[in-house]
Amino acid sequence: MKPWLKRTLIGVFGVSLLAGGLTACGHRHHGQGWQASAEDVAKWRERALDKAGRELQLDEAQKLKLGTLFDKLNEQRSALVGANPNPRSEMSALIAGERFDKARAQSLIEEKTNAVRSKSPEVVAAAGDFFDSLKPEQQQKVREFMQHRHGRWGWRG
Fold first, then answer.
1. 6 is a domain residue
2. Domain count within the chain
C-alpha cells in the first residue's frame, strides 16, 4: 500500500473514532451513568452529515456512505459501552474490596478488546468506502482538515 494512502486511511479512521467518541459524549450531562440516547445520536448524526455534506460538497451516494460510516461507528461505540451504562461503577468495583480485582479488570479489557476487534473491520471498510468515493479535491479537504485539527485539542489528543 502506498504510504500516503496508508496515512490517509489511518487519518480517516482516527477521525472516525473521534466521531464515535463524540457520539458517546456529545452532550455534557453531569450525572453519573448518562448515555447518549438514540435520539441524541440521531441528531448528532444528522448535524454531522449536514455539515460534512456542505463542507465537502458531497453528492447523495457519498452522503449514504458517510451515513453508513456513522452507523458502523455507533455500533462499535455501543459494543464498547456494553451492557453497563456506567463505566465508573465498573472501575469502582475493581477497587471495592480489600484487593484489586485483577481477574475482573482483565475480563473488562478482554470485553472491550473483543468489541473493537469484532467491529473494526466493518468500520474500516465503511471508512475506506467513504474515502474512496470522494473526488481528489474532496480527499484533499479531508487531509487539510486533519492537518489543521492536529494540536487543537491540547492535552486531549
1. no
2. 1
CA-CA-CA-CA torsion sign (16, 20, 25, 26): positive
Q: What is the pLDDT of residues 25-66, one digit of tens each?
A: 444 444 444 566 778 888 988 998 899 889 899 999 999 999
- CATH number, domain of 91, equals 1.20.120
- Output the DSSP codes for 43-72: HHHHHHHHHHHHHHT--HHHHHHHHHHHHH
Return the C-alpha torsion angle 31, 18, 127, 138, nearest 10: 130
Q: Is the pTM of this model over 0.70?
A: no
CB 20 within 8 A of CB 152: no
**Contact between 113 and 76 (Cβ < 8 Å):** no
138 within a domain of the structure (yes/no): yes
Residue that the C-alpha cell 475493581 belongs to: 94
Which domain range does residue 138 map to? Answer: 39-150
As a whole number of angstroms, the distance between CA 48 and CA 58 comes to 12
